[in-house]
């Protein structure tokens, strides 16, 4: 990767990637990315870019589009498959840098990269599919079909919590479909985003097909949304961010795909395997320190087993080891930044003020080496009412709520009782209840006897209600986001035929 060394500090400075080259921002300004496990460690300095830098990236993508569109889809797919193999060879390097940038423990970071590897292989397979359709014409000697065509330049805006996996969900299907890309990664995780782009470049993408610009939302993100040459914006982020971008795209009549927030729940019924449910709730609540859009932030438990479940869950929570994610003995790493740490802790105070019972945790950890980082104690609230803010609002940290209910029907009602609808789960041994839950839970993803996290790339990913705008990532629908349909009619009758008018009377 092209980079320079700052002579006075020795810190690495990274540039934008535009038209196949690493290019300095016109501003000359940079921002620092810090290790959330140790804020004294600077991962690197990155370009604080301008709207002109963004325009140069769109120029390059716009220029590269005709050639990339004409490249046969199987040939495009071969490049993506090569990228999969390079990702495999650099998995550990990417994972370790991911831990340094956003804090998740090393085994989870490896899983993040593995998702990108899986998506690359899956997307490469689409290069020989990209299926259209043929249908019968209502007229004789007339052929009717529809084919997919790429949109053009795609603007990709991604979050920090899955800094390799989420870009891969968006960029790889878009590339196989024949689009070019301008990529704005999260400012908390620019290094692994750059490494991902570098791997795509090494795999053989022509200059200008993928471009990367770092910087703020106002100076880079907004101009990306506003540029009329960008035909589609694909964004993952908060519901507030998504609504703002979607509103602007609506004004511009521009395609927008949003994957936004969640307030996900596990429902544990009285006939459930309690130990299995505790395992799932623990992983769902505190994996990635709760910083997943699919994190289990509500645990809805039948009142008959509530006490037993709560005791076992709190006991297991107390055993979790907190610390730097590079230490394989640790179960939970830091949250991504000091601002996020303060936000999470503010919700703990809100929960206390609302009258929820603090069963464990609730503290910012400042003991020993933890004082240098952004560590929050895994936190469990009990006897949480559905109307409380901590049961309604996305916290995005290691905080979860135990909520007692009297029966299956109330569990479904409480689970559905938020503005979000990403991932919901039901633990039960009753097959009838399981299928009733599948039908009645209002979410894009439903798990039975498994936590709310763990989606696989071969199925569509996304949610309903305020979680998104109806589009899905991954799976067989991944291509839908990044293609337009073109309907084609071939009349070989040799005469004018009028659809819905011509009749063949007397024949």
Please render the helix and strand layout as text.
Elements: E1 3-5, E2 12-14, E3 16-18, E4 21-23, E5 30-35, E6 38-47, H1 51-70, H2 73-89, H3 91-102, H4 106-126, E7 133-135, E8 142-150, E9 153-157, H5 165-176, E10 180-184, H6 190-203, E11 210-212, H7 217-226, E12 230-236, H8 239-252, E13 255-259, E14 264-268, H9 274-286, E15 296-302, H10 306-319, H11 338-354, E16 357-360, E17 379-382, E18 399-405, H12 408-415, E19 420-421, E20 423-427, H13 431-440, E21 445-448, E22 464-465, E23 483-491
Parallel strand pairs: 2-6, 9-10, 9-12, 10-11, 12-13, 14-15, 14-20, 15-18, 17-18, 20-21
Antiparallel strand pairs: 1-2, 3-4, 5-6, 7-8, 8-23, 16-17, 19-22
User: Low-confidence stretches at least 5 residues in length (pLDDT < 50)?
Assistant: 2-9
- Largest beta sheet: strand ordering: 16-17-18-15-14-20-21
How many helices? The count is 13
Number of E strands: 23
How many structural domains in the coordinates?
A: 2
Major sheet characteristics? 7 strands, mixed
Termini separation (Å)? 71 Å
Average pLDDT works out at: 95
Could you please say which CATH topology of the largest domain applies here? Aldehyde Dehydrogenase, Chain A, domain 1
Derived structural class: alpha/beta
Helix content: 25-40%
Shape descriptor: globular
Instruction: Please state roughly what percent of the residues sit in beta strands, choosing from under 5%, 5-15%, 15-25%, 25-35%, 35-45% or over 45%.
Output: 15-25%
The CATH architecture assignment of the largest domain turns out to be: 3-Layer(aba) Sandwich
Q: What is the CATH H-level superfamily of the largest domain? A: Aldehyde Dehydrogenase, Chain A, domain 1
CATH class of the largest domain: Alpha Beta
Rg over CA atoms, rounded to whole Å, is 25 Å
